[in-house]
Amino acid sequence: MSKTARKIASPRMVALTPMFYMQSVQQAFYNATFPLFIASFHDPNTDLSIKLYLAGTLALASSCVALVLTKVGYRLRSLHLLSAVWASQALALLLVLFLRPVNNLAALFPIGIILGVTDAVIRTQNFILINEMFPEAADTPSAFACFNFHQSLGLGIFFISSKYLLGPDRVPNMAVWVPLQMGIFLIAVIGVGMGQRWYSPRSQHATSAPLEEVVKIEEDSLGIALDDTIATRDSSKM
Question: 171, exposed or middle or buried, with CB in 10 Å at 0-12, 13-18, 19+?
Answer without folding.
Answer: middle
